[in-house]
Design brief:
seven-stranded mixed beta barrel; 265 residues; 6 helices; alpha+beta; seven-stranded mixed β-sheet; homotrimer
Chain lengths: 265, 265, 265
């Protein structure tokens, strides 16, 4: 197997505790040649879907890497620690759906292994340090997945399917996937859905009863209105210029928004 | 051009989204020899002045580097993506004033370029990943600024001038620039202003109607009083010992404080 | 002295200000061979005990390193900047108790030095940048502690003793040391105390008047009950499954909890 110059790391550990730092130190020690890049550790605690969305959004925009991801409410139980090979990356984390959408984005899992190695010690509550980071370090160092675990059939993996949008002419029904720091709302609808619904730049729209404009930058959004524009990951986002769409609309992840063209009403 | 061993990175991206991580991964891939150090990503969202102050404070205390800075409410619009050469550093970011005070601190811009290269893709909302980090990677690798953009006259750059203080004998009128995590208030006044106003250590002062002392460490501040002392960047700060001056005074950035010596009243 | 490939860094600086980044840049410049890993910068402002607990918990789980730690309410005063040698590590920080429990965990201090070198400049409020990080960089580069300071007797060091638990048959009285991001409460009691009190897995317990179970993973905790289980650092923690024990019990660090076996009441 090749060595990987990059390990990415995503979790719900936050940065106020030393959990992330201990994993970094372990990776630095056991895979000194590799760079470790934090995608984020701000995944909402134990929110597997949140982590799965962010990881899937990122994998398209990253070089070959071992992607270490830990959002793991079932730590210590029967849920399996796994490695998935997909595209030119290896995904390492719990088999609870967290890794699935990322693997799907990379043309689906080409292989999977259940990790059978763990650090000695009595703790069963910190598998990031004791199971996942050690496995990621070995994989980044070029060890074959067979040395950290046993192959399993890909169709036994826990599957998490992210919501898509319902698209009709002039109308998109979509789920809120994420809000970002700026209050932009990332939708399950993609830019392709925009085309499929026949919604084009500068068209007048309505979102949750408010006027909205289809555009491509925040600054094009008319004062006091909503904008519907491509985000950085191929999806659509709702935004207001120099303000928070999440606050204006009072929306949070998992809620539904309906986008209609005004002519179509 | 020389290679740079250090890229610093400052933004308003926060750490809860993967924006910072994606820029780090890109820098690691395209400029693998360089170290990337985060100055902070806690700049208040879209607060260009906040970012400009922090960056300017830091550049004096950093080795030769490419300084990547992104606080960019005008992303995707006509505002220009730029590189500024100043002292022994290159500054990379939007031409909205963010970089200006740092360049001014380093004896002023010696050259400037408008970045003309961007990563392929439809997104116009994440120039950190698509424009600025790729340019920073090439500059850190020793490429000439001419390979990432076109030279422009320095006097066409957007200028942002940070506030200074009004100084008279025994009196300083100053703006609050920042509050830090400890509630210390960084002022636009400098330690030189302190000398100019004739305010010396151990002198009795009054700030916003409260007794204050001119000192050099937090522990010298008398219980229940304010201290006026040099901060780590050559400016003055208002502080209380083991407490928050920001809370005690109810002040936030952009507000004015008046410091008078009690003998002078 | 050997070079160290790893410098860890813990502080109460937070990440919203550039304090951590400036120390990183300095370390990158002066000790370019070493990796710097942040343990956390989320120690509560000026809470030396909080920092001491986290550092002591971590040192057992880290490779040979220089451990830089700064929680320093007395910055600029007579409190001494020190280096402590313990086990195969060097600890660098203020002599206010912050380093003591970590050194104790590593079989006690084998040597100590008062740092006598500091960067030029008028500031007396940022010893992380001006005293501690420069010393850590030199030590990581293989310089002898004698080159950064003067040896002092170990018994002159400021000692901070972390609380332990009162253990009787079927009963543990323990202090809350920490809460983590998930609301788990880390106790001063250890897994050894559990054995000493005769409390075994699956035993029915009572904590603060609520039913609790002795177990080893979060998922084993019965719905609506408390779990008492080993944390990742050899101590015991109180937890609820997919919820916050800190919220359920309304407890914060320094408060006392009593754990009794129901049969023993």
């Amino acid at each position: 197997m090749p060595r990987y110059d990059l390990v990415t790391f995503l979790s719900d550990y936050g940065l106020a505790d030393p959990f992330v730092g201990l994993c970094h130190a372990l990776l630095a020690y056991r895979a000194p040649h590799t760079r470790v890049v934090d995608l984020t550790h701000g995944i909402r605690p134990q929110d597997v879907r949140h982590g799965a969305i962010v990881l899937a959004d990122c994998v398209d925009h990253l070089p070959p890497a071992v992607h270490l991801a830990v959002v793991d409410p079932g730590v210590g139980t029967g849920r399996r620690p796994i490695v998935i090979a997909a595209g030119n990356v290896l995904l390492v984390g719990p088999d609870n759906g967290l890794l699935w959408p990322a693997a799907a984005r990379l043309d689906g899992p080409a292989g999977a292994w259940v990790i059978t190695t763990r650090s000695a010690g009595p703790s069963r509550t910190f598998d990031g340090r004791d199971v996942f980071a050690p496995a990621a370090a070995r994989l980044a160092s070029g060890e074959d997945p067979d040395t950290v675990g046993l192959p399993v059939a890909v169709d036994t993996l826990f599957k998490l399917h992210l919501p898509t949008a319902n698209v009709a002419a002039g109308r998109i029904e979509s789920e809120v996937l994420l809000t970002d720091r700026f209050g932009n709302l990332q939708l399950s609808a993609t830019t392709a859905d925009l085309d499929a619904a026949g919604l084009a730049p500068s068209m007048r729209l309505e979102v949750q009863g408010r006027p909205a404009t289809c555009c491509s930058t925040f600054a094009e959004i008319p004062q006091g209105e909503l904008g519907l524009l491509p985000d950085a990951f191929g999806r659509l986002q709702l935004a207001v210029d120099r303000g928070s769409a999440a606050q204006v609309l009072g929306l949070i992840p998992c809620q539904i928004v309906t986008i209609t063209s005004i002519t179509e009403r």
